[in-house]
Each structure stands twice: as structure tokens, then as C-alpha cells.
Amino acid sequence: MAKFKRIAVLTSGGDAPGMNAAIRSVTRAAIYNGLEVIGIRHGYKGLIEGYSKPLKVHTVSNIIQLGGTILKTARCMEFKTPEGRKEAYDYLKRRQIGGVVVIGGDGTFTGARVFNEEFDIPFIGIPGTIDNDIYGTDYTIGYDTALNTVISAVDKIRDTASAHNRLFFIEVMGADAGFIALRSGIACGAEAILVPEVKNQVSTLKSFLEDGFRRKKSSNIIIVAEGSEEGGAYEIAKKVKEDFQEYSVRVTVLGHIQRGGSPSVFDRVSASRLGYAAVEALLDDQKSAMVGLQNNKIALVPFRQAVKLHKELNKELLNISKVLSI
Ligand code: F6P
Fold first, then answer.
1. Are 198 and 177 in contact (CB under 8 A)?
2. DSSP E strand stretches across the chain
């Protein structure tokens, strides 16, 4: 028997395709277990200001296929303050909400962790960010869809790159992590991949290009994570152009197109599993933890680990990407 009759769900931070599938799953799993569900709008801001709407079985019909989030999202500064969190707590108490599921990334989980150190209403997290940079889960919701968006764009760019014998620098998202760059780079057969986790990549890139030039390689696709150590795609392209005047260079920044669109099968299924698992965790009296996917199994990971520990890029993939681009 649950100690409470009502839970809340919210999305926070950058949106990611599959968040709606997770909202649907949380709502239906909770109702199935006899709970009421309140949808909090605009992330933590909604908890402080009381923006909410009840979620029923039918409210979450026909949303599994939608990108974005029906609950809206925001990055909230007030929740970083003790006063803001106290207001959120008072709101939850007033509404007799006994547990909260938060869907987002590390900023979201940092707020949830601090809240759970101060107050007794349990928070459970679902990793939702296209960046896949959360420790304790192999995949975050939205990552797979973003990858598919990237490769369908890069495939098109490769057509024109090869028609003109051009060198293309394509910037993908990842302010602090190279997960999108690495995986999409392998999937689209990129000649080189630049990520924030590896230093001094421009000099390696230059010798690689020199080699290719000698072998009369006609076009090149270079994937650059936006947070790469030596700059985004425009900066890297400029540095390369200084030494390769003969190259016809172009830059494409894919930008927020990567955050939208209908979620892939993988993201829909992951979101459905994780939403269900989050409700189970609340019913099981868990708190201050994220539900994640490890080796295709559900894992419960304390927020303090999820936000503190660093998720490493897969070294094997990095190596494969180099070998395959000879
Ligand atoms: O969602 C994560 C992320 O996509 C990062 O890769 C990117 O740097 C950031 O969000 C940009 O978000 P916004 O434009 O919403 O500030």
C-alpha cells in the first residue's frame, strides 16, 4: 500500500524527444496503481508558482509520438535557492502530493537531490536529455532520436560535399560531452570526430587531412561537438583553412533541429520502461534516485552518483572511428 494517494510529474531543463512518452507512462502506471497524477507545468518554476493540471488516462492519449513536452519545460533559478525549494515544498504539501517524478538532465537531478536532503517528499528522476551525458544509465531519453536526426542531415550533406569535392564541418550538440558527435560520426562514416573529451584534436586533424589530400580524397565530413576543446565548427574550420587554402570548406551547424521531432522506437520504449519503473520506485518508498538503463535492465541510481560521477565516452568507439576513417 502506498503511503500517498497523489504524485506529480514534471519535465525540466532542455526538452528531449520521448519526454511525452515518459509522461504518459508515469501517468498510466500511477493510475493503474490507484494513484492520482498532477502534471506540473514549466518544470520547477511550476512547483514554486503552482502551475499544474490533473493528468488522467485520456489526457495522455496520442502523445507518445510527439516531440517536445506537453508539460513545457524551463531552467529555474529560484529552485536553486532554499526559499524557492521551501515554496515548492509548501505547494506539494498543500496539494497533498506524496511523491514527484522529474524528467530531465543533471541540472534537474541536482535540484532534486538537494530538495530530498531538505524535505521528506521523495523525488525520483528519469534521464531525459539528447546529450546522453548522465552517469548511471547507458541511454538517456531523446539521445537515439537526436542521433537519427543528425545522420539523416549528414547523409544529405555528404551528397553535396562529394558533388563539389568539399570539406564540411558539421556541428552537433554537446556542450560538455561528445556522445552525440561520436555515435553519429560513426553512423555516418565521418572522416573525423571532434569531442570535448579529447585534447589537441586540430593538429591530428590537420595531419589526417594532409594524408587524405595526398591520396586525392575528394570530400570529407568532420563532425564537431559544439563544446569541442578547440572551438565549435566555425572556429575549427577557420584554423584548418589557414593551412589548407586549396580546400573548399563549408560549415553547417545543426542546432536545435536535434532537439525536436517524433521520438524513435528506442526512445519510446525506453521512456515507457523508465516511466513505469519510476512509479514502481515511488511505491517502493525509494527517494533521491534516478531510474536508468544498464545493460538493458532497469537500475536505480542515487542522484548523488548520477550528478557527481562522470560518464566516460566509449574508448572502443573512439578507436573504431579512427580505424574506419583511414
Ligand atoms: O539539451 C542539452 C543541450 O542540447 C546541449 O547540448 C546544448 O548545449 C543545450 O542543450 C542548448 O540548450 P538551450 O538552447 O535550450 O539553452
1. no
2. 6-11, 36-40, 52-55, 99-104, 123-127, 167-172, 192-194, 220-225, 249-253, 289-294, 297-302
Known catalytic membership, residue 131: yes
Distance (Å, whole) CA 173 – CA 257:
10
- Which position among 106, 131, 138, 144 bears the catalytic label? 131
Question: Which residue, by CA, sits nearest to atom 16 of ligand 1?
Answer: 14
Q: What share of the chain is helix, strand, coil (3-state, %, to 5)?
A: 45, 20, 35
Which amino acids bring their CB within 6 angstroms of ligand 1? 14, 129-131, 173-175, 226, 259
Q: 42, 106, 258, 259: which to mutate for ligand 1, most atoms within 8 A of CB? A: 259
SS3 sequence, 2-26?
CCCCEEEEEECCCCCCCHHHHHHHH
Q: Cell numbers at residue 323, please?
A: 580505424
Whole-angstrom distance, CA of residue 114 vs CA of residue 129:
20
Q: What are phi and psi of 119, to 5 degrees?
A: -130, 160
pTM of model > 0.90:
yes
State the Cα–Cα distance between residues 85 and 82, nearest whole angstrom.
5
Q: Give 13-62 pLDDT, tens digit per residue.
A: 999 999 999 999 999 999 999 999 999 999 999 999 999 999 999 999 99
State whether the Cα torsion 282-286-287-290 is positive or negative. Answer: negative
- The domains located in the chain, with CATH, are 6-142+263-308 (3.40.50.450), 144-259 (3.40.50.460)
pLDDT digits (tens, 9 = 90+) for 196-233: 999 989 999 999 888 876 677 777 999 999 999 999 99
* Single-letter residue type at 125: G
